[in-house]
Amino acid sequence: MKSIFKNTIIVAALVFGAASVSNAQVKVGSNPAAIGTSSNLEVEATNGNKTIVDKATGKVTIQDGTQGAGKVLTSDANGASSWQPSIPASQDAEVMLSAKLTTTQSLPYSGGGIITKVNFDTELFDKGNNFDLTNDQLTAPTSGYYSVNVGFSRSGTASNSISAFIYVNNVESGQGNLWDGGIPASAGYTASASRMVHLNAGDVLDVRFRPNFAADGISTAFLQIAKVSN
Asked: How far is CA 101 from CA 43, 67, 154, 217, 218, in A?
């Protein structure tokens, strides 16, 4: 009888011990005496960052200071992980600008085409405030690739040709003429074109027009710029 009672106690102890192990919480690293009530496992660094395995769901939470909504876990060349935006930051359109000219601007001609900066007078929007209406120029906040879209409507009536250029740091950007074709003898001629340019942080961009055969003018014009990639 004593033997049976003794064996019963041993079995009960083993069962109880197994249950305790199955429900155990494990804390590794700093502050080992404290663990979240919903955690099965916590690995904590000295700065308080930690990796957690949830007791109920089994989900893993990595809190390393870079975490945030919508981010993805990526590694560097050495395999160290961190949370990064799920899409490139430039896709958040760091630069998004729309400006226009609403009053007629003359384009002088004197024995040859004179290149004149377009005097935009209205901003429809300018995310980041990177466009200066006083100097009619965009200053790139960061290096990357920028989409530039330009258009105009002429005010002159004689046959002519008007070219448009993108200037970067007061030098023609190398993109060539945005357009350059004959204009019939009538008012209201319109044209537009787009280019992709690379700008370094601090580069200054503006748009300039040149009449090729005689003085002319533009009654309206627009400029749209967006950063599309780093």
From this structure: 60, 44, 12, 12, 9
